[in-house]
UniProtKB/TrEMBL annotation:
GO MF entries: phosphate transmembrane transporter activity
Membrane topology: Multi-pass membrane protein
Alphabetized UniProt keyword annotations: Coiled coil, Membrane, Phosphate transport, Transmembrane, Transmembrane helix, Transport
Protein name: Phosphate transporter
Length: 539
């Protein structure tokens, strides 16, 4: 039997090793294709070797974004069983690539969010290229490490830390815009707290208006259309503001009645969302009138499943449109510096560079995304369609609120914070303590009986003229009290164990928070070390 067990373990290990090798092989093939294409396209340009190496770093960074960051968009849908893992990967890969290629940034700041002052490079193109290469590689290495430890972290913060560290190594601490870094540090708190509060608020509202009602079916007919229409409004507004801002000028050229602004305003986006939200409301009302709703939690959950699937697709599209710049922004800066021989504050991203980012994200997601998808969807807290719906809705609304208030936020921190929020709400609602109350009542009853038996035993033992029945009763009482003491002890152990049962895994919570806090400094230190290595080799 033991030999059979060992044999099974060996087979499983060989299979796992084979899969890991296959994943690595596919990733290396993608990087090899990127190298060949880049060299064929720019091989005759001076310093093209730097661009080829930088493209490798950019492809590596893009794959790590896919492996780590995309989990936040589809994790709740997978955890709630609204989507299978395979289905989620396919949807996310397609919509991430579509978002990057269709609505990705056509122009990006070479230095993300004004982290450093490019004037401090004094026009030294080589130093600038080395700094950007260092930033890319450092951010990618940190993301790879975080993914290995199953910690969802912010890719934006990773590249920000990389740019900051490389900039300091290249030109000193004065190169950094510290006010901007302060805002980024503030987002560590703002993002998860906002996401958690909004997600918990919607979950509490759904529980109060639907789940906790005796007639859940009647409550669902009234409230589900409202919640789904709110989600529609939020996502259309979110997608218009974040996913279409890079192609808004082209849209207004076709639809001339729209305001001719550089990007959609909140008012226009909100009106789009309101129109579609109202339409969805009436569609849902008509749908629920025709259907017989099962008066159970599972019966209600099914009406939140389809919106959750749509949210996973739309979040992926918006993520691809915005966060692809984390991989290709520095690469575009390097490309521009190599091809033009100068340093520009802004540079157009060539389509081939954007394609590397889009394909890299999708490939990284398909190869290594499941690890983080399972963590986000299953391991932080248990997710069902209603909770997943609240997490996705919180992600969209938080970004909208933050954008209007000018608050810096991280999509990763928002999504994970929202999951923490629904988990902590479940604890606050005393879902665990219902069982604890029962155990405490059992302990109370047992202690009352024990006290009564002990008093009776004490009276009998003090009795001077004991009869045969008295002695029998004393023996019975001793046995009963001993048994009751054991029972009370056992109940207290159970209660102590139950008190430790939480709906949010505390070890994972601490690990993720720690990873968030150290992302910028770790990426910065790595980037500085890599910069000095490159500089040492080149000089």
């Amino acid at each position: 039997m033991e030999l059979q067990t060992v044999s099974k373990i060996e087979k499983k290990a060989r299979k796992s090793a084979g899969i890991d090798l296959m994943r690595l092989g596919i990733a290396l093939i993608f990087i090899a294709v990127v190298v060949i294409y880049t060299y064929a396209k720019t091989g005759s340009v001076p310093n093209s070797l730097f661009l080829v190496i930088a493209t490798v770093f950019g492809a590596y960074m893009a794959m790590n974004i896919g492996a780590n960051d995309v989990a936040n968009n589809v994790g709740p849908a997978v955890g709630s069983r609204a989507l299978s893992l395979t289905g989620a990967i396919i949807i996310a890969a397609v919509f991430e690539a579509a978002g990057a290629l269709i609505a990705g940034a056509d122009v990006t700041n070479t230095i993300r969010k004004g982290i450093i002052d490019i004037a401090a490079f004094n026009g030294d193109v080589n130093i600038f290229i080395w700094a950007m290469m260092s930033a890319l590689l450092a951010a990618a290495l940190w993301l790879n490490l975080a993914t290995a430890f199953k910690a969802p972290v912010s890719t934006t913060h990773s590249i920000v830390g990389g740019v900051m560290g490389a900039g300091i190594a290249a030109a000193g601490f004065s190169i950094v815009h510290w006010a901007t870094m302060g805002k980024i540090a503030a987002s560590w708190v703002i993002s998860p707290v906002l996401g958690g509060i909004i997600a918990a608020g919607f979950l509490y509202a759904i529980k109060k208006t639907v789940v906790f009602k005796e007639d859940m079916a009647a409550a669902a007919r009234k409230w589900v259309p409202i919640y789904v229409s709110i989600m529609t409004w939020a996502f259309v507004t979110y997608l218009t503001m974040k996913g279409l801002k890079h192609v808004w000028v082209n849209i207004t050229d076709v639809l001339s009645f729209l305001p001719h602004t550089k990007k959609p305003t909140f008012g226009v986006a909100a009106i789009f969302g309101l129109i579609l939200g109202v339409a969805v409301y009436f569609i849902m009302v008509a749908k629920l009138k025709k259907e017989q709703i099962i008066n159970t939690r599972e019966g209600i959950n099914r009406y939140f499943t389809v919106p959750l699937i749509f949210s996973a697709a739309l979040l992926s599209f918006a993520h691809g449109a915005n966060d692809v710049a984390n991989a290709v922004g520095p690469l575009a800066a390097i490309s521009d510096a190599v091809l033009s021989g100068g340093i520009a504050s802004k540079s157009a991203i060539p389509f081939w560079v954007m394609a590397i980012g889009a394909l890299g994200i999708s490939i990284g997601l398909a190869l290594y995304g499941p690890r983080l998808i399972k963590t986000v969807g299953d391991e932080i807290t248990k997710i069902d369609p209603i909770r997943g719906f609240c997490v996705a809705l919180a992600a969209a609304i938080t970004v909208i609120i933050a954008s209007q208030l000018g608050l810096p936020v991280s999509s990763t921190h928002i999504a994970v914070g929202a999951i923490f929020g629904v988990g902590f709400l479940r604890e606050w609602l005393h879902l665990v303590e219902q069982k604890e109350d029962e155990i405490e009542k059992e302990i109370e009853e047992a202690e009352k009986r024990l006290k009564a038996y002990e008093l009776e035993l004490e009276d009998l033992q003090q009795k001077t003229d004991k009869s045969k029945e008295d002695y029998k009763r004393i023996v019975e009482l001793i046995e009963v009290t001993e048994e009751l003491e054991k029972t009370i002890k056992r109940f207290k152990k159970i209660l102590k164990k139950e008190e430790k049962v939480k709906y949010v895994k505390r070890d994972l919570f601490k690990k993720i928070i720690a990873a968030w806090i150290i992302t910028v400094p770790v990426a910065a230190v790595l980037a500085a070390m890599i910069f000095f290595m490159i500089k040492g080799m080149m000089l």
